[in-house]
Amino acid sequence: METTSRVGAQAQPTPSTTSTTEGVPAARRTVDGYLRAPFPWYGLDEAFTGPRWLMQVGTAADGTVQHGATGHGEEPTTRPEVAGPERGRFAVVVTVAANPVRRSGDGTGVLDATTASSAAWLAGSGLLAYTWPAQLDHALRSEWLDQQTETAFELADDLDGPAWTTLSLPVDGVPRPFHYRESEFGWVLAGSTTAGVHLGAYGRGMSAYGLGFSVIADIAAYA
């Protein structure tokens, strides 16, 4: 289980995240963290012509940026009164630095290297943050989210298991293999690049089969 090490827990928005009036986490609105990253950020390639927006970055104990996400399409909402298709058609791309060794959260030890499983965990937990059943009350929603998040973690740790299929998608114009799964909440995929990062993605209302990924030339353009 240390392969993923719940690396994304600190960076994924949840239903309790402080939000703007539109239901979009306010913490997503800054580009500063992205600019500090020592690795390239990825997003959908130029074939996608819709809106693009920033989400959040995750950092190590020493403040080094380790991963982050960029959004594409209609920004999803966490407002409980908005349900079903009205929550938006979107795809989020998660970029994870391919670190051979990572410091533990308390700075006292090291964790296993990041892998495609790390990206799968971030993508799976990120999807859940925007797809919890709106009709649940707060107490039941928290229990549901904890249960589903644990399932997402276990699935991410077994990318060769029966829950995943494979597909090939272009990354910087070159086909790359990805692990892919669908659920009632949306889809999740994860893979690796030759640019020193792992990629994850999740979405709803947009087909994953037609996506392509490329390095973001100007991350500030997403702000």
How does this model look, in words?
With about 220 residues, this protein is of the alpha+beta class. It has one domain. The protein has helices spanning about 30-35, 115-130, 140-155; strands at about 40-45, 50-60, 65-75, 90-95, 100-105, 110, 165-170, 175-185, 185-190, 195-205, 215. The protein has a 7-stranded antiparallel beta sheet with strand order 2-3-4-10-9-8-7, with helices on one face. Strands 1-11 form a two-stranded antiparallel ribbon. β8 and β9 form a beta hairpin. α2 (about 115-130) packs antiparallel against α3. It is globular, with a radius of gyration of 16 Å. The model is unreliable at about 10-30 and about 80-85 (pLDDT under 50).
Task: Please supply descriptive tags for the structure shown above.
223 residues, seven-stranded antiparallel sheet, 3 helices, single chain, two-stranded antiparallel ribbon, alpha+beta
